[in-house]
Amino acid sequence: MSVAGKYECVTRSPMGDQTSILTVEVDGASFSGSNSGPMGNMEITGGTVDGNTISWSSNITVPMPMKLDCTATIDGDALNGTVTAGMFGSFPMTGKRIG
Q: Smallest Cα–Cα separation from 70: which of 50, 90, 51?
């Protein structure tokens, strides 16, 4: 099963649970897309696909400018991963395929 699709995600951050819709558009060993939530739309940069594991970065401006580094493994319709926010550490992210 391809990792391409849309996922309803929750990231457990120090500011509380952050919900978003992660869109993954695969092109060989790379992918593009976005992660959209109440804080805005984060474009994905440097998206890579290795089997059922995806890795990417996003830049946020709210609550402060920061680069997020993300990795997730997709098992069927379930997504489990980690969001690393620089000096703030890493936070778990879970999700499920939608649509």
A: 90
31-54: average pLDDT? 93
| Separation between Cα atoms, residue 85 and residue 97, nearest integer Å | 24
* Cα separation, 15 vs 13, whole angstroms: 5
Bridge partners of 4? none
Which tens digit of pLDDT belongs to each residue from 47-82?
Answer: 999 999 999 999 988 778 999 999 999 999 999 999
pTM, entire model: 0.93
How distant, in Å, are the alpha carbons of 16, 64, 70 from that of 81? 17, 22, 7
Structure tokens at 6: 């849309």
Instruction: Give the residue among 8, 4, 59, 11 at the shortest CA–CA distance from 32.
Output: 4
Q: CA 3, CA 56: separation in Å to the nearest integer?
A: 14
Whole-number Å distance between alpha carbons of 95 and 64: 24
